[in-house]
Automatic annotation (TrEMBL):
Chief location category: cytoplasm
Entry protein name: Mini-ribonuclease 3
Gene name in the database record: mrnC
Keyword terms: Cytoplasm, Endonuclease, Hydrolase, Magnesium, Nuclease, Ribosome biogenesis, RNA-binding, rRNA processing, rRNA-binding
Cofactor requirements of the protein: Mg(2+)
Cross-referenced Pfam families: Ribonuclease_3
Taxonomic lineage: Bacteria, Bacillati, Cyanobacteriota, Cyanophyceae, Desertifilales
Length: 135
């Protein structure tokens, strides 16, 4: 079972209003959508909660998010690449444990996900399907 993000989308946000949102706001939403997608993806087949949790934690780590962004880059259009750029440029202070580039890439992915969740959920679903999560 894979979550279809279209089932969770609020009413459409006007494109002008969407452009006014900061990359940090988009990343905030994108982080939640990404984690919910991963939790739903790993829900089946049924397992112990701890095993679900371990699988999800592995996917939501910044290092894995950076890898997912690199996987998606060839599939992105110019507007999506612009969102990635905006997300990357919004990072000012990464956590000490992380390479700043990894953190920038993870934030860029979250920004892209937040943007697509609010503007084009079917496109978001399409991009999620290109990720190979079963490796």
């Amino acid at each position: 079972m894979v979550l279809d993000p279209r089932s969770l989308v609020p009413d459409a946000i006007d494109q002008h209003d969407l452009q006014r949102l900061s990359p940090a706001a988009l990343a905030y939403v994108g982080d939640a959508v990404y984690e919910l997608y991963m939790r739903t993806y790993y829900l089946m087949p049924p397992k112990r909660s701890q095993l679900h949790h371990q699988a999800v934690v592995q996917q939501v780590r910044a290092e894995q998010q950076a890898e997912h962004l690199q996987t998606l880059i060839p599939y992105l259009n110019s507007q999506e690449l612009e969102m990635v750029r905006r997300g990357r440029n919004s990072v000012h202070r990464p956590p000490r444990r992380l390479d700043p580039q990894i953190y920038q890439q993870a934030t860029s992915l979250e920004t892209l996900i937040g943007y697509l969740y609010l503007s084009d959920p079917s496109r978001l679903h399409q991009l999620f399907e290109t990720l190979n999560l079963d490796e």
